[in-house]
Amino acid sequence: MKVIRPIRSKDLPQLQALVASISGGLTSLPNDPEFLEGRVNDSVRSFNPTIRKAGDEYYLFVLEDTETGRLLGTSGIHARVGGFDPFYSYEIRQKTFAHEPLGIRKQIAELHLKKTHKGPSEIGSLFLRADARKGGLGRLLSLSRFLFMSAFPKRFDRHALAEMRGYSDASGRAPFWESVGRHFFEKDYHTADFLSGLGNKDFIADLMPEHPIYITLLPPDVQAVIGRVHLETEPALAMLRQEGFAETGEVDIFDAGPLMRVEIAKIRTVSASKVAKVASLLNDEPPSPARLVANRSLDYRCCLASVAGHEDGTVSLSRAAASALGVAEGGTIAHSPLR
């Protein structure tokens, strides 16, 4: 079985190896051993049962092959962005320029630096090994977070945010950074992104331009990538749109990738999900399409499995699936279609 579960302290060596294998890295999981150890510790603390509202919690999940114990991927949730360390973005606004005697009236798009101190929940830290990108595991890794958020709504904001990786070319060059950010930071894109991922946000406040940037004054090739995602991010963007996420009119300050947002209760996986009691366990998988199936515990588990529904609203599932989820006959699960 391939199972989603919270990361554990003993997973740190595997997490470090996993992160080291990521080409270009992940902003929220930079390749720094000390930082990753802190991330794991933060996640372990975040599952404390006494938490009653969204704060600075960071939940990190891993996809494990239970047969081998190998970690295949990661996905995470920030309970709330902002707080002590502000969340920065560029908001795209339209400004009208007009001169009636000459019959000139036009709108120019501007980039305004936005600093958020109490924002929505944010999903991120999504990575799946290349050799595991099959059989719906990518959807499991991404969508399983929504069933967890649905099970524990008080731990999160009403809305969820996703910051998508912006466009860069085959050599790793980010046109937006080269045209805007480099002039102020005097660092390459990956260094700035790495520092931001480590939580060092002071340099952003000190060095970011304070005044709006007129998009029309940027080179055409740079204008074209504002709000555009990296080629490898296009499948994730399509999946989030199917789930109900929509563009916010904001982009990342480094690579101009789009920010997506949705009300958690309206996410497709959440709205289509059902909570059911397990009536019985079967020796074999029921003959129905695999679904997302999760327990309702802070010791969270989610996997792909088939369920057999009954008229009274209860379900049956295989013993293998029940074992992977840590549920017994009479227990409660949530299930939702993959698409």
Fold topology:
Layout (H helix, E strand, L loop, with lengths): L1 E5 L5 H9 L12 H14 L11 E8 L4 E9 L3 E18 L4 E15 L2 E8 L8 H15 L7 E5 L11 H11 L3 H9 L4 H6 L5 E2 L5 H4 L10 H10 L2 E6 L6 E6 L4 H4 L2 E9 L8 E5 L6 E4 L1 E3 L5 E4 H7 L6 E6 L2
Parallel strand pairs: 6-7, 11-15
Antiparallel strand pairs: 1-2, 1-13, 2-3, 3-6, 4-5, 4-9, 5-8, 7-10, 9-10, 11-16, 12-13, 12-16, 14-15
CATH class of the largest domain: Alpha Beta
Rg (C-alpha, Å): 22 Å
Q: Give me the CATH architecture of the largest domain, please.
A: 3-Layer(aba) Sandwich
Helix content: 25-40%
Average pLDDT over all residues: 92
Oligomer: single chain
Mass-distribution shape: globular
- CATH fold annotation of the largest domain: Aminopeptidase
Poorly predicted runs are none
Q: Could you say how many structural domains there are in total?
A: 2
Structural class determined from secondary elements? alpha+beta
Give the beta-strand count. Answer: 16
Distance between the termini: 20 Å
Number of helices: 10
Characterise the protein shown here.
This protein is of the alpha+beta class and 339 residues long. The chain folds into 2 domains: 2-81 and 118-269, 3-Layer(aba) Sandwich (Aminopeptidase), CATH 3.40.630.30; 272-337, Barwin-like endoglucanases. The chain is 26% helix and 33% strand. The chain contains 10 helices and 16 strands. The protein has helices spanning 12-20, 33-46, 137-151, 175-185, 189-197, 202-207, 220-223, 234-243, 268-271, 319-325; strands at 2-6, 58-65, 70-78, 82-99, 104-118, 121-128, 159-163, 213-214, 246-251, 258-263, 274-282, 291-295, 302-305, 307-309, 315-318, 332-337. The chain has a 16-stranded mixed β-sheet, sandwiched between helices. α3 (137-151) links the parallel β6 (121-128) and β7. The longest helix is centred in the middle third of the chain and has 15 residues, at 137-151. The chain is globular, with a radius of gyration of 22 Å. The relative contact order is 0.15.
